[in-house]
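thread: overnight batch results

M.L. [08:02]
morning all. the overnight job finished for the chain we discussed friday. pasting input first so we're all looking at the same thing
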Amino acid sequence: MNLLLDYIAVPVMTRRYLALLLCLMTSLLITSSLPGVSFAARPGEIAPVTDMTKEPAAYIVVDAAKGKIISSKNIHEARGVASTSKIVTALAAINTIDADQLIDIPLEAESVQPMKIGMKQGQKWKRDDLLYSLLLVSANDAAYALADASTGSISSFTKQQTRIGKELGMKDSTFGDPSGLDDEAAINGGTKMSVYDLAIAGRALLAQPFLAKIVRTPSYQFVGGDNIMHTLTNHNDKFLKGYAGANGLKTGYTQRAGRTLMVSATRNDTTLIAVVVDVQQTNEWAAQLLNQGFADIEAGKVSKKAATLPAIGVIGSLANITILKEPQKNEKATASKIGSTQVNAPSERNEFLSVPLVSLILLAILTFLFLWRRRNVKKRKRLRRERALALKESQRRAMIDVIDLTIEAESELVSKG
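M.L. [08:03]
and the structure it wrote out:
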């Protein structure tokens, strides 16, 4: 009852603040009770798909560790996939070129059409800088230089790609230009791959620690063989910043192939890979497919009989530098290795503010506003009381002065009489 009387005694404006505070806190408590509700800590969060009728021409979602296919569409349809085929180029390069080798830039790399970072024939560039350029900004000149260094000529690199595809268990791919170009200028024609084969390539890349590190890197800076400082910003930065747990992989686009995207993300120790081909809203569809994949795994809806990608086998290496899996290790060991490369991936918890924290912040702000308002109201009341007392005192003094003057005037009249 005392609280109610105190509330009634509070001024109207202050009561409005209290009512607003009560409404907000009630809404937050109701919201926090709903499953899966969170507040985005960043403005770049990927929006939902706006047109569900315009699906990707093909897509696949797989468990990177187990190789199990979670969802798919037209998985064995070989299509142009643009620069996402550069993942195979990267796998070939890291397995056949020594890490400290300086790569001579061929004429084809200098003259290839953009995207490129401006290499010139005869310059010498570091292998790792070229790999970053290849996977972060999809540099076509880097693809040509790596292909040439891998096999001695760009035209013969197709055999290297085909060999790697076969060793990884790819079924549908026909390899051509190492950069993913598919127009008349493409060397050996354009590459055609299925989303099934792209998922295999993406899974192999994540099993290679150095390549896995590259594809989750937001930006990279280095001094190239041209003695110029280069700053690369990952073309996949929108997905990396906008999807919780994102840690890869590669974008792609040509007029013939359309927009293609390979992504990966880790949540609750599970890494999923999603590939979408020939769709305008690549990020939105990839995010939606990953969300559904994580939800299906959490709910136990993935069938034990679901199709599985081939185990990640050895990629033969002329330089015998790097292999993705030791011959004596089994598939389970490989699955553990894939998961271990994702330790530094941003977690969903780190990317979002929790509901209780937001509630506390809002409560603190509203409490401050309420106390500040109440203090100002009390101050104004005190000032009004002081003015009123001062006015009364002034009026009282004026009355006394009038009385004194009247008495004095009467005294003068009496004395004169």
